[in-house]
């Protein structure tokens, strides 16, 4: 005990703002259920597994830890199933899925000698007892991040909060034993912040929840705000406040004042109810996506190093499928596993390793590749009776890689292609452009576009890319006769495909070679401005590669826009061979006898590209009483998007010091996020800025401008002769032969890349393996013809 007292200065009592980790190790995927349990640093509140807590002690000197250990409870084999009261899985009152129940035990451990003291114990210093109790009752940081991601968007302060009128009724709310004023409900209760009445919440579709008394009271009185009782704690921002007029969960900046009006001391209240977001999260993350791929197949589960599944965090299959394939490539294995230990990554990490991308990638790499977590669990899969593994949850990795990104930090489904771009960009920036540390470099290659105008002169435009995005030429289908017969039969019987079985439907089959040929085939550019002719003409563009990457990623453009900008997914099969050869796609650069187009951009193009306010928008705004000049600026600065967008801009910029200054037609600064988007497409930053300035900040117009004005980027490269052009070695790009072997497929189910489900198939040790979230097994029928992304590895001679 004296040893603990001598280290009391290193014990901290958590504040509501502290992030407390108590469910998962920051360096590994150890949990309280792991053999050594989990150790919570009572100074930083970071958690560490048994094998890693000494590393934290060596780095920080923090000696006092809360040890949390969970052990399975013994359950009789003939235990009766509980009758469900909720149509949900994994929540109180829901269906009993026979999950093991665990018993928690705690102790205080002092390092470096792992001296253990029992908890709870009245002999412990009061500071330690308070600190530990606070940690145990707090919502863990892992859970907070998950709930915050599920809500997708930050809650906004209610427009009614600052002007809320509270009735002086003398009502004092007791700290517990609440009941609805109009029925006997004692759960899901809401306190109206105007008159202090306690009423039950909305009735769910399945009859659970409440009796709608709270919302009916709002309709009768118009009193706008209510707070859910049981969610009020010292962390007021976490309280569930609902605005009926705004029909959303909101923040109440004056909640402490509004609660005090009814005698509520928020600092002493405990959390007893789930917030709306937490309940939605629990019901959605328990849906079993794992049964929708290769269902009906007898998949043989596989375990060991490199065969670890990833737990679906709720619509995170796009991340799981992408990361499984990336950690099957040599650069990722080397960088984040074989050549970097967890100890080394932790030593290089900042004070909070949960916020370091390198640390979390190393943690993920060791989790996937070590085999430590790829072991059969005691219980078998309820659906297949097969041995299964739990998989590892990539929460910390997702949190850090998605930080600052509105979509990836949400719990919504995302496009696996967009995530691949985002991750590679993060890696390149995070490694300070050092090729020896940048594992994304193995996917990079050079693209060269050659344009010949009618004058016979040429221009070359070069850029880097990491994806070869291919159109699918349906006219090259190899089963045209079968397609025609199927369509005739379908028309004759008046059938729709959604009323037919999958086996009956005939889909086009297009060879991958035809997609590659379409990419490299000549393309006409109409209204191309020729600096040689000083006028518009028709030009021919061809595209080739200046280097061949170590790993080639092919993106099949299955999602196209129909008339009216309606997205449609092409229902098509792509015949993909195991080995491809793209040697014929290598570009040759400037050839002897070719003459380059003169430098410069058409003056008329730059003049016509100056942003001009839409007169219809301006006139509508002026009719509302706004100043003409202000209206023109609003239209220009919102790219003529519409009256509503321009109005919002006006309200936000009324007090700008230059609001009355004349409109300048000189190039203005462009939005950095738009620049970053164009850079992610492979364009140079200077070219991206020039294009955005010339197109009023519109990304789509800027992209067209770049393709129609390739000379704009001539200054970024030396194309005066084929011999003076930079080689791949000089630009740091990998290069080699053009033969590649297929080793990975990301396939997608669903009508849009932002919904449905993603699954990875990977060729490992001579056999195809399916990675379907936490489910890993030998694939009996890999969907080679249904891929969305195809991953190839170069075959060097």
From TrEMBL:
Recognizes and hydrolyzes the peptide bond at the C-terminal Gly of ubiquitin. Involved in the processing of poly-ubiquitin precursors as well as that of ubiquitinated proteins. InterPro entries: Papain-like_cys_pep_sf, Peptidase_C19_UCH, Ub_carboxyl-term_hydrolase, UBA, UBA-like_sf, Ubiquitinyl_hydrolase, UBP13_Znf-UBP_var, USP. Residues 308-795 form the USP domain. It is an enzyme of class 3 (hydrolase). It catalyses: Thiol-dependent hydrolysis of ester, thioester, amide, peptide and isopeptide bonds formed by the C-terminal Gly of ubiquitin (a 76-residue protein attached to proteins as an intracellular targeting signal). Keywords: Hydrolase, Metal-binding, Protease, Repeat, Thiol protease, Ubl conjugation pathway, Zinc, Zinc-finger. Zn(2+) binds at residues 180, 183, 200, 213. GO terms for molecular function: cysteine-type deubiquitinase activity; zinc ion binding. Belongs to the peptidase C19 family. It comes from the Eukaryota. This is Ubiquitin carboxyl-terminal hydrolase. The keyword Magnesium does not apply. Its EC number is 3.4.19.12. Residues 612-653, 669-709 form the UBA domain. The keyword Protease applies. It comes from Brassica carinata.
């Amino acid at each position: 005990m004296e040893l603990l007292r001598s280290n009391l200065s290193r014990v901290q009592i958590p504040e509501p703002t502290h992030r407390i980790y108590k469910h998962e190790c920051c360096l590994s995927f150890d949990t309280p259920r792991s053999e050594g349990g989990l150790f919570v640093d009572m100074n930083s509140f970071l958690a560490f597994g048994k094998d890693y807590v000494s590393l934290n002690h060596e780095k920080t000197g923090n000696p006092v830890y809360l040890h949390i250990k969970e052990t399975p409870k013994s359950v009789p084999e003939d235990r009766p199933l509980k009758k469900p009261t909720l149509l949900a899985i994994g929540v109180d009152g829901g269906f009993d899925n026979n999950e093991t129940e665990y018993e928690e035990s705690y102790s205080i451990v002092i390092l470096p000698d792992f001296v253990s003291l029992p908890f709870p114990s009245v002999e412990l210093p009061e500071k330690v007892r308070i600190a530990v109790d606070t940690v145990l009752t707090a919502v863990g940081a892992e859970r907070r991040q998950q709930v915050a991601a599920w809500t997708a968007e930050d809650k906004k302060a209610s427009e009614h909060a600052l002007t809320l009128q509270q009735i002086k009724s003398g009502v004092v709310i007791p700290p517990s034993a609440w009941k609805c004023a109009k029925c006997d409900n004692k759960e899901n209760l809401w306190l109206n912040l105007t008159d202090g009445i306690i009423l039950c919440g909305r009735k769910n579709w399945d009859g659970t929840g409440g009796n709608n008394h709270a919302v009916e009271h709002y309709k009768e009185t118009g009193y706008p705000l209510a707070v859910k009782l049981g969610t009020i704690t010292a962390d007021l921002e976490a309280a569930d406040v609902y605005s009926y007029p705004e029909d959303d969960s909101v923040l109440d900046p004056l909640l402490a004042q509004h609660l005090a009006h009814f005698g509520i001391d928020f600092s002493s209240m405990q959390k007893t109810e789930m917030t709306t977001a937490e309940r939605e999260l629990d019901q959605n993350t328990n849906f079993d996506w794992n049964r929708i791929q290769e269902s009906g197949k007898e998949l043989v589960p596989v375990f060991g190093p490199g065969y670890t599944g990833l737990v679906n965090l709720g619509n995170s299959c796009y991340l799981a499928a992408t990361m499984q394939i990336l950690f099957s490539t040599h650069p990722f294995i080397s960088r984040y596993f074989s050549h970097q230990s967890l100890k080394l990554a932790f030593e290089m990490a900042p004070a909070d390793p949960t916020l370091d991308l390198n640390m979390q990638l190393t943690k993920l790499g060791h989790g996937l590749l070590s085999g430590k977590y790829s072991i059969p669990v005691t219980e078998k899969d309820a659906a297949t009776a097969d041995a299964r593994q739990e998989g590892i949850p990539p929460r910390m990795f997702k949190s850090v890689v998605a930080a600052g990104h509105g979509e990836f930090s949400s719990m919504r489904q995302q496009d696996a292609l967009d995530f691949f771009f985002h991750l590679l960009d993060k890696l390149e920036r995070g490694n300070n452009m050092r090729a020896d540390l940048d594992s994304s470099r193995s996917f990079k290659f050079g693209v060269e576009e050659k344009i010949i105008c009618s004058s016979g002169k040429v221009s070359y435009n070069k850029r880097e890319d990491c994806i070869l995005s291919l159109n699918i030429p349906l006219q090259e289908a190899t089963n045209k006769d079968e397609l025609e017969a199927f369509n005739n039969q379908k028309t004759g019987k008046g059938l729709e495909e959604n009323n037919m079985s999958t086996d009956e439907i005939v889909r086009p089959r297009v060879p991958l070679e035809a997609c590659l040929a379409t990419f490299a085939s000549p393309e006409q550019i109409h209204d191309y401005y020729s600096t040689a002719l000083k006028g518009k003409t028709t030009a021919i563009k061809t595209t080739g590669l200046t280097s061949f990457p170590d790993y080639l990623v092919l993106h099949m453009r299955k999602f196209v826009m129909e008339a009216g900008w309606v997205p449609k997914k092409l229902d098509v099969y792509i015949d993909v061979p195991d080995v491809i050869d793209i040697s014929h796609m290598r570009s040759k650069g400037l050839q002897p006898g070719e003459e380059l187009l003169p430098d410069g951009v058409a003056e008329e193009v730059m003049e016509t590209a100056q942003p001009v306010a839409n007169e219809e928008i301006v006139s509508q705004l002026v009719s509302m009483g706004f100043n003409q000049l202000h209206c023109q600026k609003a239209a220009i600065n919102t790219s003529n998007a519409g009256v509503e967008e321009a109005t919002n801009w006006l309200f936000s910029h009324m007090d700008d010091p230059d609001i009355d200054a004349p409109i300048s037609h000189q190039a203005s600064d462009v939005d950095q996020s738009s620049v970053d988007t164009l850079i992610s497409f492979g364009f140079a930053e200077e070219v991206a800025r020039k294009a955005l300035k010339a197109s009023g900040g519109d990304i789509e117009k800027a992209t067209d401008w770049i393709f129609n004005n390739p000379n704009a980027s001539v200054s970024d490269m030396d194309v005066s002769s084929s011999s003076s052009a930079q080689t791949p070695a000089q630009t740091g790009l990998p290069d080699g032969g053009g033969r590649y072997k297929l080793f990975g497929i990301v396939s997608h189910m669903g009508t849009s890349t932002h919904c449905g489900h993603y699954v990875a198939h990977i060729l490992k040790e001579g056999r195809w393996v399916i990675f379907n979230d936490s489910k890993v097994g030998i694939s009996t029928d890999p969907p080679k013809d249904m891929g969305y992304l195809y991953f190839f590895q170069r075959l060097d001679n």
